[in-house]
Amino acid sequence: MTLTRFLRIFLAGALAASMTGCSYLAKAILAPQKDISKFYLLTPTADTAAPATGTAPNTSGTFTIGLGPIKLPPYLDRPEVVTRAAPNRLELSKEDRWGESVQNGFTSAMDRNLAAETGAAVIDFPWYNTVHIDMQVQIDVYRFETDSNGTATLSAKWTILDSTGKNILYTVESNLTQPSKPGDTTDAAAALSRTIGDLSGQIANMLHQLRSQQGAHSS
Q1: Is residue 127 helix, strand or coil?
Q2: Separation of alpha carbons 211 and 201, rounded Å
Q3: First to last CA, the chain
Q4: pLDDT reported for residue 59
Q5: Distance CA 179, CA 108 (A)
Q6: What CATH number was assigned to the domain covering residues 38-218?
Q7: Alpha carbons 43 and 196: distance in angstroms, whole number
Q8: Residues of the chain whose pLDDT is less than 50?
Q9: Domain residues of the chain, as ranges?
Protein backbone atom coordinates (compact mmCIF):
# COMPACT_ATOMS: atom_id res chain seq x y z
CA MET A 1 0.00 0.00 0.00
CA THR A 2 1.42 3.34 -1.02
CA LEU A 3 1.69 6.21 1.42
CA THR A 4 -0.75 8.27 -0.62
CA ARG A 5 -3.40 5.53 -0.55
CA PHE A 6 -2.85 5.02 3.19
CA LEU A 7 -3.37 8.71 3.84
CA ARG A 8 -6.56 8.71 1.76
CA ILE A 9 -7.95 5.74 3.71
CA PHE A 10 -6.95 7.32 7.03
CA LEU A 11 -8.54 10.68 6.16
CA ALA A 12 -11.71 9.00 4.94
CA GLY A 13 -11.97 7.05 8.21
CA ALA A 14 -11.34 10.16 10.27
CA LEU A 15 -13.98 12.07 8.30
CA ALA A 16 -16.52 9.28 8.78
CA ALA A 17 -15.81 9.14 12.50
CA SER A 18 -16.13 12.91 12.74
CA MET A 19 -19.46 12.90 10.90
CA THR A 20 -20.74 10.10 13.15
CA GLY A 21 -19.73 12.07 16.22
CA CYS A 22 -21.38 15.23 14.91
CA SER A 23 -24.54 13.31 14.10
CA TYR A 24 -24.67 11.84 17.61
CA LEU A 25 -24.04 15.26 19.14
CA ALA A 26 -26.76 16.84 17.00
CA LYS A 27 -29.25 14.15 18.03
CA ALA A 28 -28.34 14.66 21.67
CA ILE A 29 -28.84 18.41 21.40
CA LEU A 30 -32.06 18.23 19.40
CA ALA A 31 -33.60 15.39 21.39
CA PRO A 32 -36.51 16.40 23.67
CA GLN A 33 -35.19 17.37 27.10
CA LYS A 34 -36.95 16.38 30.31
CA ASP A 35 -38.66 19.36 31.90
CA ILE A 36 -37.44 19.57 35.49
CA SER A 37 -39.35 22.75 36.31
CA LYS A 38 -41.27 22.94 39.58
CA PHE A 39 -43.99 25.51 40.14
CA TYR A 40 -44.89 27.36 43.34
CA LEU A 41 -47.65 29.68 44.57
CA LEU A 42 -48.08 32.39 47.18
CA THR A 43 -51.07 31.68 49.41
CA PRO A 44 -53.19 33.61 51.93
CA THR A 45 -52.49 32.87 55.57
CA ALA A 46 -55.65 34.29 57.14
CA ASP A 47 -58.93 32.42 57.45
CA THR A 48 -60.11 32.02 53.84
CA ALA A 49 -63.78 31.89 54.84
CA ALA A 50 -64.02 35.58 54.01
CA PRO A 51 -66.25 37.88 51.97
CA ALA A 52 -65.79 37.81 48.23
CA THR A 53 -62.96 39.99 46.97
CA GLY A 54 -61.78 41.43 43.69
CA THR A 55 -64.13 43.54 41.62
CA ALA A 56 -67.62 43.37 43.14
CA PRO A 57 -68.96 46.88 43.90
CA ASN A 58 -70.25 47.82 47.33
CA THR A 59 -74.04 47.57 47.21
CA SER A 60 -74.92 46.55 50.79
CA GLY A 61 -73.30 49.25 52.90
CA THR A 62 -70.27 47.08 53.70
CA PHE A 63 -67.02 48.86 54.50
CA THR A 64 -64.97 48.76 51.30
CA ILE A 65 -61.20 48.77 50.96
CA GLY A 66 -59.58 49.78 47.69
CA LEU A 67 -56.36 47.76 47.41
CA GLY A 68 -53.65 49.21 45.21
CA PRO A 69 -51.70 50.15 43.38
CA ILE A 70 -49.31 47.47 44.64
CA LYS A 71 -45.85 48.05 43.16
CA LEU A 72 -43.18 45.34 43.21
CA PRO A 73 -39.51 45.76 42.20
CA PRO A 74 -38.81 44.96 38.53
CA TYR A 75 -36.43 42.09 39.39
CA LEU A 76 -39.47 40.06 40.47
CA ASP A 77 -41.19 40.47 37.10
CA ARG A 78 -40.02 37.05 35.85
CA PRO A 79 -41.13 33.41 36.19
CA GLU A 80 -37.93 32.22 37.90
CA VAL A 81 -37.78 32.11 41.70
CA VAL A 82 -35.25 34.72 42.86
CA THR A 83 -32.82 34.22 45.75
CA ARG A 84 -30.63 36.98 47.21
CA ALA A 85 -27.18 35.40 47.28
CA ALA A 86 -25.47 38.58 48.55
CA PRO A 87 -26.54 42.18 49.25
CA ASN A 88 -25.75 43.12 45.63
CA ARG A 89 -26.30 39.79 43.88
CA LEU A 90 -29.42 37.87 42.91
CA GLU A 91 -29.64 34.28 41.65
CA LEU A 92 -32.38 32.96 39.35
CA SER A 93 -33.35 29.33 39.80
CA LYS A 94 -32.89 27.06 36.80
CA GLU A 95 -35.82 24.82 37.73
CA ASP A 96 -38.03 26.60 40.28
CA ARG A 97 -40.78 28.75 38.75
CA TRP A 98 -43.75 30.70 39.97
CA GLY A 99 -47.09 29.26 38.88
CA GLU A 100 -48.35 32.82 38.28
CA SER A 101 -46.75 36.24 38.28
CA VAL A 102 -45.48 37.37 41.67
CA GLN A 103 -47.62 40.51 41.21
CA ASN A 104 -50.82 38.47 40.87
CA GLY A 105 -49.88 36.06 43.66
CA PHE A 106 -49.00 38.87 46.06
CA THR A 107 -52.19 40.81 45.30
CA SER A 108 -54.41 37.74 45.60
CA ALA A 109 -52.93 36.72 48.96
CA MET A 110 -53.25 40.29 50.28
CA ASP A 111 -56.87 40.41 49.04
CA ARG A 112 -57.87 37.29 50.91
CA ASN A 113 -55.98 38.20 54.07
CA LEU A 114 -57.43 41.72 54.35
CA ALA A 115 -60.96 40.51 53.66
CA ALA A 116 -60.68 37.84 56.36
CA GLU A 117 -59.01 40.12 58.92
CA THR A 118 -61.28 43.16 58.46
CA GLY A 119 -64.58 41.69 57.30
CA ALA A 120 -64.55 44.34 54.57
CA ALA A 121 -65.08 44.06 50.84
CA VAL A 122 -61.76 44.37 49.01
CA ILE A 123 -61.59 45.79 45.49
CA ASP A 124 -58.41 45.74 43.43
CA PHE A 125 -57.01 48.84 41.74
CA PRO A 126 -58.05 50.14 39.28
CA TRP A 127 -61.76 50.47 39.98
CA TYR A 128 -64.60 52.40 38.37
CA ASN A 129 -65.33 55.94 39.48
CA THR A 130 -68.84 54.82 40.37
CA VAL A 131 -67.53 52.39 43.02
CA HIS A 132 -67.47 53.81 46.53
CA ILE A 133 -64.20 53.23 48.41
CA ASP A 134 -64.10 53.94 52.16
CA MET A 135 -60.31 53.70 52.44
CA GLN A 136 -57.53 52.98 49.98
CA VAL A 137 -54.38 50.98 50.69
CA GLN A 138 -51.29 51.54 48.53
CA ILE A 139 -48.20 49.30 48.86
CA ASP A 140 -44.71 49.92 47.47
CA VAL A 141 -42.58 46.79 47.87
CA TYR A 142 -38.80 47.24 48.00
CA ARG A 143 -37.73 43.64 48.71
CA PHE A 144 -39.54 40.32 48.50
CA GLU A 145 -37.33 37.22 48.35
CA THR A 146 -35.48 34.65 50.41
CA ASP A 147 -31.72 34.57 50.94
CA SER A 148 -29.24 31.68 50.96
CA ASN A 149 -29.96 31.10 54.67
CA GLY A 150 -33.66 30.63 53.97
CA THR A 151 -34.76 33.93 55.50
CA ALA A 152 -37.76 35.38 53.69
CA THR A 153 -37.83 39.19 53.65
CA LEU A 154 -40.63 41.60 52.79
CA SER A 155 -39.78 45.31 52.95
CA ALA A 156 -42.49 47.72 51.91
CA LYS A 157 -43.94 51.17 52.43
CA TRP A 158 -47.70 51.19 52.79
CA THR A 159 -50.14 54.06 52.90
CA ILE A 160 -53.79 54.33 53.86
CA LEU A 161 -55.77 57.11 52.18
CA ASP A 162 -59.29 58.39 52.68
CA SER A 163 -62.26 57.72 50.44
CA THR A 164 -61.14 60.37 47.95
CA GLY A 165 -57.68 58.85 47.58
CA LYS A 166 -56.16 62.30 48.09
CA ASN A 167 -55.62 62.56 51.85
CA ILE A 168 -53.10 60.34 53.66
CA LEU A 169 -54.46 58.90 56.91
CA TYR A 170 -51.40 56.83 57.77
CA THR A 171 -48.11 55.78 56.18
CA VAL A 172 -45.19 53.67 57.41
CA GLU A 173 -42.45 51.27 56.27
CA SER A 174 -42.50 47.63 57.37
CA ASN A 175 -39.55 45.23 57.35
CA LEU A 176 -40.72 41.68 57.92
CA THR A 177 -38.89 38.34 57.98
CA GLN A 178 -39.86 34.69 58.29
CA PRO A 179 -37.56 31.63 58.48
CA SER A 180 -37.53 28.72 56.04
CA LYS A 181 -35.31 25.73 55.38
CA PRO A 182 -32.31 26.74 53.24
CA GLY A 183 -32.60 25.34 49.72
CA ASP A 184 -36.24 24.26 50.20
CA THR A 185 -38.32 26.30 47.75
CA THR A 186 -41.62 24.88 49.01
CA ASP A 187 -40.81 26.12 52.50
CA ALA A 188 -39.52 29.41 51.08
CA ALA A 189 -42.83 30.04 49.26
CA ALA A 190 -44.69 29.35 52.51
CA ALA A 191 -42.38 31.75 54.40
CA LEU A 192 -42.90 34.48 51.81
CA SER A 193 -46.66 33.92 52.11
CA ARG A 194 -46.35 34.38 55.88
CA THR A 195 -44.62 37.73 55.39
CA ILE A 196 -47.60 38.85 53.31
CA GLY A 197 -49.80 37.65 56.16
CA ASP A 198 -47.76 39.68 58.65
CA LEU A 199 -48.05 42.79 56.48
CA SER A 200 -51.78 42.37 55.98
CA GLY A 201 -52.14 41.96 59.76
CA GLN A 202 -50.41 45.31 60.35
CA ILE A 203 -52.56 47.00 57.72
CA ALA A 204 -55.77 45.45 59.10
CA ASN A 205 -54.96 46.61 62.63
CA MET A 206 -54.45 50.17 61.45
CA LEU A 207 -57.64 50.07 59.38
CA HIS A 208 -59.53 49.01 62.51
CA GLN A 209 -58.00 51.91 64.46
CA LEU A 210 -58.82 54.45 61.78
CA ARG A 211 -62.39 53.19 61.48
CA SER A 212 -62.80 53.44 65.26
CA GLN A 213 -61.48 57.01 65.21
CA GLN A 214 -63.88 57.95 62.42
CA GLY A 215 -66.75 56.36 64.33
CA ALA A 216 -65.85 58.27 67.48
CA HIS A 217 -65.73 61.55 65.58
CA SER A 218 -69.07 60.97 63.90
CA SER A 219 -70.91 60.02 67.11
Answers
A1: coil
A2: 15
A3: 115
A4: 41
A5: 22
A6: 3.40.50.10610
A7: 9
A8: 7, 14-17, 48-60
A9: 38-218
